[in-house]
Amino acid sequence: MPRSSATPRDIRRGTGTWSFGWRASVSSSRPSIGCCRRTSSSAPNTVSDPADGNSGFIFDIQRFSVHDGPGIRTLVFFKGCPLACLWCSNPESQQFVPEILFDATKCVACRGCVETCPRGAVRRSGAAVAYDRTRCAVCGRCADACPAEARTVAGRRVTAEEIVAEVLKDAPFFATSGGGVTLGGGEPLAQADCACAVLRQSRLQGIHTAIETCGHVPWSAFETILPFTDLFLYDVKNLDAGVHRAQTGGDVALVLSNLERLAVSGATVIVRVPVVPGFNDAREDIRAIADHVARLRIRELHLLPHHRLGNSKYRLLGRPVAFRTHEGVPGTHLAALKRVARGAGLIVKVGG
Predict the structure, then answer these.
(1) In the chain, what are the helix, strand and coil shares in percent, each to the nearest 5?
(2) Paired residues of 65 in beta bridges
(3) What is the pLDDT of residues 48-105, one digit of tens each?
(4) Domains 8-23+30-97+155-350 and 107-148 share a fold
């Protein structure tokens, strides 16, 4: 998945309204939040769509994207993912609940957050302020009160119509570039009903539609959106079941089963491989993936080199960086991996 380039202002004041459906009165088990439900922190993420199927949970809308499908695209980031990849560049996308991002370097100690917090999660600490996440209900009041935007909220609930209205603002760029809308995340198919509504309404407006997916969802989610999706950008991370589960928390058999069914359906699919040092950057790893993709008669594969641009977000979320490699993927090695993948008869591109 691409890295969201959202600034705190984008995250806080983007499309939609403050309607989280999660307040201080809920229990620590975190029940259903709009279209999403998160299980215990040690279990894989699971979700369920809302009764109306028309609202979704997003954390960013990024314009003028050129790496997520053909032409100039508007990229909608859905919040929540069934996987927990250790190298994730959008950690604010993983959980199915709103989250506070706190940048202490921006804090001017005005104490507006202290005065407005109803739970006492923010308190004075000498000349600065201290933040206790265990007491925070993510009501968003501290973010509203922060003039320096040191506190922002990632995650808001919106309707499909609101998303499409934002997407349509970029229609002139789509027309001249052959672009369109791409749904990413997180995992948009974890909110399949809302994703389907956005894709269907976009199609009715003549907009090219694409979706980025990790594939770790029930096949029924794909069936829902198939009639309205022009392009699937499908992640395959590693074919080894043990390695895949250890690094992502997910079942590669489900990912590969859905990919095969998608290929058989006749959908247009590009397989994308995040090339991560020590995880899948050996030639044997890429050869195995490329051979598997070729057997499914999928023609194109993209190699996406790992980067560390999202590491600072872990600090803002109060989390440790789980994947601490200081190495990128050298260009010479990427070129070698590209040659390996092309050996399977595929069209291979480095980057999205």
Answers:
(1) 35, 20, 45
(2) 73
(3) 444 356 899 999 999 999 999 999 999 999 999 999 999 999 999 999 989 999 999 9
(4) no
Query: Which pTM does this prediction carry?
Result: 0.84
Overall CATH class of domain 107-148? alpha beta
Element (H, E) at 244: helix 241-248
Going by C-alpha positions, the residue among 150, 147, 141, 124 that lies closest to residue 8 is 150
How many CA atoms lie less than 13 Å away from 274 in the CB half-sphere? 23
Q: Which of these, 248, 237, 201, 203, lies nearest to 81 by C-alpha position?
A: 248
C-beta of residue 201 within 8 angstroms of C-beta of residue 221: no
- What digits encode the pLDDT tens for the residues 162-200? 999 999 999 999 999 999 999 999 999 999 999 999 999
Give the domain ranges of the chain: 8-23+30-97+155-350, 107-148
Fold of 8-23+30-97+155-350: TIM Barrel (3.20.20)
**Which pair of tokens denotes residue 150?**
């040191």
Sign (positive/negative) of CA torsion 78, 167, 213, 67? Answer: negative
Q: Is 29 exposed, middle or buried (0-12, 13-18, 19+ CB in 10 A)?
A: exposed
Report strand pairing: 128-131 vs 151-154: unpaired
The CA-CA-CA angle for residues 242, 246, 250, to 5°, reads 85
